[in-house]
Amino acid sequence: MASEFGLLLRRLRHQAGMTQEALAERAGVGVRTVRGLETGERADPRVATVRLLADALQLRPEEREELLRAAVRRTAEGNRQDESGDRLQPGSGEPGAEESGSGRSGSAAHDALADVAEQLAQAVVARWQREEEQRQVQDPFPLPVRWRSASEELTDHWANIRRLPAGSTHGPLDLSGRLDGIVEMHRRIPSGRLVVLGRSGSGKTILTVRFVLDHLKSRARAEAVPVIFSIGSWSPTTVTLRDWLAGQLMRDHPGLAAAAPGGVSLAAALVETGRVLPVLDGFDEIADGLRRPALEALNATNLPLLLTSRPAEYGAAVAETDVLTSAAAVELTDLTLSDLADYLPRTIRKASGADPGATAWDPVLTELRERPHSKASANLTAVLATPLMVALARTVYSDTPDHDPATLLDTDRFNSPEKLEDHLLDNFLPTVYRRRPEHRPTGRRGRGFDPARAQYWLGYLAHHLTRLGTPDLAWWRLGGGLRRSTRTLVTALVTAVAIALVDCCVGTIFDPLGFQLVDGMVAGLLSGPMFGLAYWLVVAARDTAVAPSIVRMKILGRSGKTRHRTVPRLAIGLLCGLAFGFGYGFLRGVLNGFIRGVGLSVGLDIGLADGLFYGLVFGLGAGLAFGFLTLLETPFDIRSAVNPPSLLRTNRRTVATQLLVWAPVFGLLVGTGAGLVVRPMQGLLGPLVWSLTAGLKLGIVSGLSGALGYALALTAWGQWAVLSRIWLPLTGRLPWAVMTFLEDAYQRGVLRQVGAVYQFRHARLQHHLNRAYQTPRTPSQAPGQR
């Protein structure tokens, strides 16, 4: 039975004098799509499809909006039938005219991606519902967020926004609204592109979270999944928007790194086929000098999106290039005195006395209401105009019984709005860190941290993020704020000590302690620089960080999709083993020759022979072991979504499994391999001293040392252990229990979780802590280590 949308589409097509085939050809969609929409068989049209049909029919603005409203109403009714006739142009994100000649395989791939999108939607809902609860957005109710249309110079031509054909008349859309209507407003914009502007703390992030959750409540199966991306971490000059979106999806949902039909990752397939609606939060947080290229890159796509920014930064980028193409723009408005009077008294305990309904906020609100033009009222009204400052005021005064909010009216202490804002920011951390652990929102007990030390550590983290030019606090990049030379030297030093200890402890089983102490020292002195060099070449020279593994290690029931990487990994292992083995053997041979007192030429000959011998043994062992490890890799489940602690635990388990597999496999290959090649090598290199005991010792020590060196230098968890758990705490920049501290800061509301990373609760708080961290301290002010 035809739906309202189907009947309307048929009427408009007849008015245009077009057949279904002509409309399909002009719109670039399948004939089955048009037929199914008109008959009601496909009653869940994509918004992008509706826009293409409207363009093809050359509808007037009011007809276009009527058709779009009918589609939205049909979507909201919950009919989730799949619009399988739609085909997507590769890379366009819009439905196209291509219909696969192999209909079943095309439909199967379409259905598979639709299922992945559904699972992504479920993960996104669960994540942001938890985050909204953690931020206490609904306690006792959300602060009102309202907006009005932005100035015309920040908005594209309305004909472009409405997607009208040339020569059509047009007028602006009424875009004023409030938080509960953000999804409906976005769906009324034919282009699907919206810019939300607001000053610092005005509620842009709250709006994006509510947009995602409300959108997903009414989302049909064929609609794109709204996903929040912190655009401040994007470098548009080095990575394209679509590649960056796919990378962020794989970071926060590792299962999307699995291969989709066609060879690309599931994340890339979702982005390329328009199944992800990017919600780009924090355009103003993009590094200076990159906002113009970022805006130009956004204009190079036609993806529907929602973008948030502070007005000044967006306006400056627009002045340098152009507005966001086909995008409408709105600007958030300030909170009113009525909003404050409704909200603040309900966040604080009732006052004791004759009037049970009185609260400590009443005198403050009375002053603001009755003497609005006084200096105290003007200052406080200006400060409490944004949800951020109201939330800080609530934390400092409503949630702390011994703090009187009437202090905020003291003009002797706070003679300007800036002084009041600094006061709230300065007192936020001491307030949240004075709470007893059992009163935390989760109800879980946790260790306490001294407020002064916590502020110092958080200041370092804020400074670290400012130096990196990103809002994302990723545990695997905590060492990235150190100089590359420092990271390399620390990695080499820790690896050398660890390998020396392993050599000494294990070697004493075979040789006397005195000899083994020297051997362990030599092994450490040689291996440390080797792994330090490997770290420099692979990581530090590119000034990057080792990313967390996107696969698990599974011995039984593993997927075969990673097996195509076995041969390349085997080759990499062979080359690295040859290089390491030759260097290790050569240096050890020369050193042994020097100790024995032979001449330089003889020592070089010994070093060359040992280098070739160890190079062959380590090359074959590393290649085969690395290839075997690859066979055990399996992608994450596509339903897996991570937070920072779970991602750390997962990578720790992956590295532990790699160690448990690598050490015995590599040790066995090296130990037995040495015994097998020693006889043929003697014919080429001359006599080689070897025995079964020497082979067993080499296998055990090499297996443990090689696995440990690889883990510390070339895995995300190893770098976390070396830099974040040893070096940064040792130098006083972070506490010893780093992840416990970060989770505690999240529970206290100082940090927020955005997928696999933390962010400061607000960019304003990050900037404030960074400024405080850079302020010189006297020795008595410097916090001690913990």
Concise overview:
This protein is of the alpha/beta class and 786 residues long. It is 56% helix and 7% strand. Strand 1 and strand 2 form a beta hairpin.
Your description of this structure?
- This protein has 786 residues and is an alpha/beta fold.
- It folds into four domains: 4-87, 434 Repressor (Amino-terminal Domain), CATH 1.10.260.40; 111-332, Rossmann fold (3-Layer(aba) Sandwich), CATH 3.40.50; 337-346 and 354-383 and 400-434, no CATH class; 480-719, no CATH class.
- The chain is 56% helix and 7% strand.
- The chain is built from 28 helices and 13 strands.
- The strands form four sheets. The chain has a seven-stranded mixed sheet with strand order 4-3-9-5-8-7-6.
- Helix 21 (513-538) crosses helix 22.
- It is globular, with a radius of gyration of 31 Å.
- The N and C termini lie far apart (71 Å).
- Mean pLDDT is 81; it is low at 75-105, 437-445, 556-562 and 778-786.
